[in-house]
Request: fold
Amino acid sequence: MFSFLVKRILSGSLIVVLVSVMIYALFWYGPKSPALELCRRDTNNRCTPAKLVEFEDRLGYSNPIYEEYGKWAKGLVADRTIIHGTSEYDCPAPCLGISYRDKSLVTDQFKERFPVTVSLAVGASALYLLIGVTVGVLAARRRGSVADKALVASTLVFSSIPYYLVALLSFLILTLSTSVFPEAKYVPFLDDPLAWFSGLLLVWLVMGLYGATAYTRYSRGSMVEALGEDYVRTARAKGLRMRTVVTKHALRSALVPVITIFGLDVAFLLSGTVFTEKIFSLEGIGKWGIDAVNIKDLPVVQATTLVLAVSVVVMNIIVDIVYSILDPRVRLA
Amino acid sequence: MKRTKAFAAGVSAAALTLTLAACGGGGDDDEGGDQGFTSGDTSSGGKNPEAVGPAPEIEGATEGGEITVLAPDPDDGIDSLDPASLWSVTDNGILQDLVLRSLTTFRQNDAGEYELVPDLATDLGTPNEDFTEWRFTLKDGIKWETGEPVTAEEVAFGIKRSFDADAFATGPGTAYSKPYFDGGADYNGPYTDGEDFPAVTTEGNDIIMKFGKPFPEMDYYSIFPAIGPVPLDAEINDYRLNALSTGPYKVEKFVPNQELVLVPNDQWDPETDPARRQLVDKYTFKFDVNPQVAAETVFSDAGSTTVVTALQGTDYNKAQSEGLQDQVLVGPQPCTSFVMPNYTKVPELEVRQALAYAYDYENIWSAGGELSGVTRANGVTDEELGFGLLPPGMAGREVWNGPFDDAPITFDPEKSKELLAEAGFEPGEYEVSFVYDASTPEGEAAAEQRQRGYEEGGFAVQKYPYTAGSLYDVWTDPDNKLYKKINLLGTAWCQDWPSAATFLPPIVETGAAYNTGQFSEASVDDEMERIRQLPVDEQAAAWGELEQTVMTDYQPVINTGYYQNIFGFGSQIGGFANDTSVGGAPDYRTIYVEQ
Amino acid sequence: MALPAGDIAVHDETADASLEPEARKKIAGRSPTRIAFDRLRKDPIAVICFAIVLLFAVIALFADQINSLVGVNTEVVRASERVNLVTLLPLDGPPNHGFDPEHPFGVAPGDGTDNFAVWTKGCQTSLFLATMAAVLSTTIGVALGLLAGFLGGIVDSIISFMIDLFLTFPFLVGALALAPIINDRWATEPEKLRDVSFWALVAILTIFGWMTVARLVRGEVLALREREFVKAARVIGVPTRRILVREMLPNLIAPIIISFSLGLPAYVSAEAGLSYLGIGIIGRESWGRTIEQATPWWEQYPQFLLAPVVGIAVLVVALNLLGDAIRDAFDPKTRR
Reply:
């Protein structure tokens, strides 16, 4: 177990570093100067070649890439002072740099935005499991029946429509036209748990119902398989109630593929949900990142990349551990 | 793309075929008292140096209530509150009206027109004979939100900051402070070059400015918050986040590009302010909101005290068909968009004229999602608008409907072929090429309509899709490989204040930033230089005459529409008016919540 | 277990019934594939779904012929001939004027293009794009997942590392950064750009889509390889390739079919979502693009939005139910 963890953490760190270098390089060596968007923005679109060079100098793009990346990476562990033109900014460790756009500390922005994204992730992932697995198991137990087909089809219809349309129309119809749900907004949980819940309820439902389809399908599929296994028949033959067999025996092995997907989905949720955040105007990691990509705000892009990379790596390790618990035959090695 | 900001962000959903990204004064939102372009006069109110506070009462206005203002995507709103960096319609509209006072300002007079009135200054300033020196006197009793008095030194400091082209590159200082003030080009603001700058000095309550060349429009330029006070200890970087208020509202919460919350400032004295009011208890501005969400909100019960700064064409039609006409307002913008042929690649005057007859105006607008005569208009919808360079309402402007009196410009393929034949081209022989925004279905549809029109007009057409950002990337970059392929470019421009001097030169002067077609005629350049030296009261007419000459003799641009913006406001919003003085935004000085 | 609905009969009930006793006699001699097909044939839902999928495939393959048969095309017309320039809504047909036989699905607001023609061409693009991406990503995913899970050791480490690396790479940032590079490269050749942007999208969807399948398969294989029948096969010296293909793969049909039938619609949606963010197909009609164009019209011209949405939904449900039926039919443990 210990050596497994060490190995996974090492390879995980390598991945995080690789991905962040790749993104850095992608921006650095893209077809247009990485300073161009910012130069345009800060000069009212009067970005002359001389201005552009000035911006490249100011943002450090005229230095070698490894030097700049080194500075950035060092900031993760040590305080640094960032100089932009004539201005200096103190950036205490862990320093993720300052946003090119509004010169604020990326770390501070992150602290403000991450709770929003975590809140979304908590609700959505809970619904994934709750709705997805319940419907999947129900459908599996009635396999082939009209109820089965209806359950499967109904979740499918929902998720076959492009997500942004579903989210947008739900918001327009359920909140604005008819006021069935209160307006979507983020209130910190500790400030007012009830407002936190009601503000995000519709968002969770949309995300949860939409995302649950995959869980329905996977859990139905593997549940059907599990119910066909010999040990299930043995259990039934022993006289155990179907309910007990399903929850105690079959579900356990049926959850293996579900857990894989779930781990990843949680990681993706934690790294921000672009469409959800954009449509419901929630200021989380996803909207932050996409806006930053558009204006080539590299420090912010790097930060959101780190969030994703770390979440994926951590969740993967957790998933493997959960595997070994769910299925004793899986060895961790 | 970012119509309200003068820059273009990489990928955005709502790119126009021709974006307004180039607007000097920013961009996008305009509201007007009614729906005709001709009434969108931006300056007919003239000047009123005698105006004093308090602002005249609005009939029926009530106090109290809270207003939410939604600025839909692609307007990502205010990213800085620093007076020196403000130069866009959204930002100036909000901050000039509510938070940051400057030496002069506009207000709506009884006739609904905008007149220039003194703000922090006692009058509209006193120029010397040749407009190389201006003197303004600061009113007594002006206070910061902290209760500290505002001093003339602080106003001078604020003006000096506008020379810092590095820290406040987005501000108007680069366009007006640096070129006009004496020695301005070499002075880079108090943070870099110290506070000692002889062109801006104080004498008791007086602020004295000296200019290197005549600047008769200093009273207009003084409407910008950049020509207002800044505390002497303001930091260069952080003041943009916590700027102090001198106006009726102060900042309670500000998240750049996301949210701005304003609450009443109890240190503001209405007796000193001829233009502003304090009718509303709280303003919440939200930026970059989904357009459909914004529209649905403003029409719903929940949005009864909401204002939307730009609705889409579909929302306008919805309002028309569902009896919500009272909740929308269509207002002109002092902006014009153009197709601009490359002057060296399309040297034949007849061909440039033919292009004006081969552009299928209304169909291109329709395919692009614009409503003919509502959000876009020019001579094809109303002869009074014409196809000239200058937007309606500009002093000295004369309607121009094309070079031929017997054939005013409209979509006329036969006339186009005729002109091509005059230039010696068979139908299908002359190839025009342009780049279009392919990132939205509307952009593609509009380009297809445009191609069809040109082909019917006897041109061969090559069009290039572009998705990587703003079309200005291509139009303003001679090294771009698409730039080398195309011979039709485009540009769009908004006035900074109602003077052709803020409009003609940026487009037709040799080497100007938005002269994307590289138009260059020595006689035109000379004439512009001559007009600048004319007595002030003769300039307007001279600019108007020059516009006629340029269009008739050279047709450097093809007018593809004046812009109008659609505002939406909730059922409980009263006093909604079009602040054309900043280039078009809701007039936050007159809005109130009906109780 | 419920009766397969096939026994409840459809139109060719008599023919089936007459075959039944004969077929039963032959049971011992039929191959598993044959059994599966026989089962499928008798499942009316499977048959209906198959017919629907087939219909869409035909529409996609023969879009041009169908359009000329109906008498519509995607050519640009002068907008004012078909739409009101102030409301942008069509002069004839939906939403305000009932059915217009010349344009069965009406015309698009704004530019007046025929909706039916755009719909069939969009079906072609979307289906082709999604199929290519789903096939490629499923194939890559299954192959790598199988190898990683079964072989273990260094192979597993490398493949797992690749999976993690790709999963960890931010998809949207990657797509948003890659698309302009491609568009920039072919900017001056619009004809090539039309194809390149399509294949680039297939590539982007594949590159960022295979890992989920791979992980899933790997997880399943990790469990499977400990199973008695696999162990037995190893002990008796069955070659690895044969174990993978003959023993493992059939047991993986469920996850493969599910991920394929989920992947296909996901890619259709992804295309729509990416075009919403500005990374779309250039110069072709597609359902995603029509949906994007129709979204602001959802209230005033819902038919415009419904056509592609219903198209996608019907296709997706049919594909999934068919996938389920195939899965069930191939499942050796399904007792009937």
